[in-house]
Amino acid sequence: MAETLLEVSGVIKRFGGFTALDGVDFAVRPGERVGLIGPNGSGKSTLVNCIAGTLRNEEGSIRFEGRDICAYAAHKRIRLGLARSFQIPKPFASMSVLDNLCVPLLYAARRRGAHGLIVDEATHILEQVGLHEKAGSMSGGLTQVDMRKLELARAMAAKPKLLISDEAMAGLSASEVDDILALLLGLKGQGVAVIMIEHVMRAVMKFSDRIAVLVAGRKIADGDPKTVVGNPEVIKAYLGE
Amino acid sequence: MSNRLFAAVAFAVAVAFAAASQLIPNEYYFTAAYTVLQFVILATAWNILGGYTGYVNFGSAAFFAIGAYSTVFLYNAFKAPLPVMIVAGTLVAGLAGLGLGYLTLRLRGVFFAIASLALSVVLFTFIVNWDYVGGARGAYVLQPREAPFGLPRYIHLLYIVMVLQAAVSLIVARTIEKSTLGRGLAAIRDDELAAECSGVPTLRLKIFSTMVSCALMGMAGTTFPFYLSFIEPSSAFSLTYAVNSIAMPLIGGMMSWIGPLIGAILLGSVQQLVQVMFSLGAWNLLIVGVLLVLFVTLAPNGIMGWVDAWRRRKGR
């Protein structure tokens, strides 16, 4: 087995009296595609926030390439190569689509010694996600699906080693889901590990090497996609008894 | 235009402007222009934090007053030369900005606005009770009898200083705007969380822009005691400064360095006109208020926003 890229162990996150994450262990290897599923409110987004640094976990450790990053602010984590997209797109609305990508290119990718012309790199990424024709448009005026693409493109612009996609497909039509899926599958060629949080099971099954299931802040299953969705506990969590 | 070229052009324009205006025979021009230039600096400085970064500072008057009162202190203590006073006032205001930023910028949005207002009240109380700089009575800071460089009167010197300070402010603002730093600040303004998750060290950038913004506001105040020859807390902490330094960028446009410049020249000149031609100085804040309402409803992105939209339409 290859070394682990991300290692989450025993992470606990409480909001007042409510325990959102109750001792979660979770690991990702370099280049691996992991699906993270679970019913609403099971703690998926909280886990993402703890990994990306937008929330701080109270207990447990989070290691990235062997380094404990619990004390790191979010901007330091993305500089190490740990990028995320947001469930509700958060474009820099006063900037053009191209300029949106320049922010992580300048602030995250450059820090790790990436070179070349920023605009060329941004254009290249926009071509990958199919937004290059809208490079000059203001990002605030994009359609939903384009905004999701921009969200992913901006995460990709940080040149991450691990990309966390937080429900990039929620509410999209079937063909739009295929667009985004193709985009995420394309990252495999670049050796980027991806954690995909998703409710669209068709996409998760097609995408993932492995699936982990969170229910009420605990991980109840983790393994081969087919085995996991056949697991009686997982079926119970989704459908009841 | 590169930063260096812009700086050179701005300085050249400033020097030419200052020299040419020496030919103006009307003494009143210098008094009025001083005030307008003061607002150019304040509006430009405010916009670095308010327009570029999206944090509203209600305490402009406090930083302006820090500049003014550091001059009073140095005048009383050493009769220090003017350049020393300018540098000192700028530094002290910048340090105060750094402190305010460090203490409050972990909070987001409106909390900073409230804290900046609170700082203004605290400083006002402090100055009112500090006898050495005049306290509530105020203090005299007399202009030297002889103006240097063969200038006819001291106000001419103050005017030239103001022109140069305005040039410095515009250069600083534009350099920040066009730099990587400016892009980071714009990202913070648009969405702070997304900025942080794109690698922007949001706290550090916010503190830095607060510091620069406040330092420039302090700089604008450093010559003020000489301008009036007499300074008291209620004039240095006047509501006019806080209101104008917000209104002028809003009216001119907050996205670029040129907006606050236009807003300040326009609004500042209108205020001077109203004050002198119609002796209605008390109406100034009312005029600002009416203009603000008009602009917020009709041209929410200010004059420059309106110009940009017109250009886009024409380009199509």
Structural description of this entry:
- The complex is a heterodimer of chains A (241) and B (316).
- With 241 residues, chain A is an alpha/beta fold.
- Chain A has helices at 44-52, 74-80, 97-109, 118-129, 144-157, 174-186, 201-207, 225-230, 232-239; strands spanning 6-15, 18-28, 33-37, 59-64, 67-68, 82-84, 162-166, 193-197, 210-215, 218-223.
- In chain A, helix 3 crosses helix 4 (118-129).
- In chain B, helix 2 (27-50) runs antiparallel to helix 13, helix 3 (60-78) crosses helix 9 and helix 4 runs antiparallel to helix 9.
- Chain B is built from 15 helices and two strands.
- Chain B has 316 residues and is an all-alpha fold.
- The chains are: A alpha/beta (241), B mainly alpha (316).
Uncertain segments of chain A are: none
Q: Give the topology string of chain B: H per helix, E per strand.
A: HHHHHEHHHHHEHHHHH
Number of helices of chain B: 15
Report Rg of chain A. 17 Å
User: How would the global form of chain B be characterised?
Assistant: globular
Question: How many angstroms separate the termini of chain A?
Answer: 37 Å
Determine the fraction of residues in helical runs of chain B and give it as a percent range.
Answer: over 70%
CATH superfamily of chain A: P-loop containing nucleotide triphosphate hydrolases
How much of the sequence lies in strands of chain A comes to: 15-25%
In the sheet with the most strands of chain B, the strands line up as 1-2
Approximate shape of chain A = globular
Give the tally of β-strands of chain B: 2
Question: What Rg of chain B is obtained from the alpha carbons, in whole angstroms?
Answer: 19 Å
Biggest sheet overview of chain A = 6 strands, mixed
The CATH first-level class of chain A comes to: Alpha Beta
Return the average pLDDT of chain B rounded to an integer. Answer: 89
Identify the notable features of this structure and list them briefly.
heterodimer, A: 241 residues, alpha/beta, Rossmann fold, 9 helices, 10 strands, 37% helix, globular, B: 316 residues, two-stranded antiparallel sheet, 2 strands
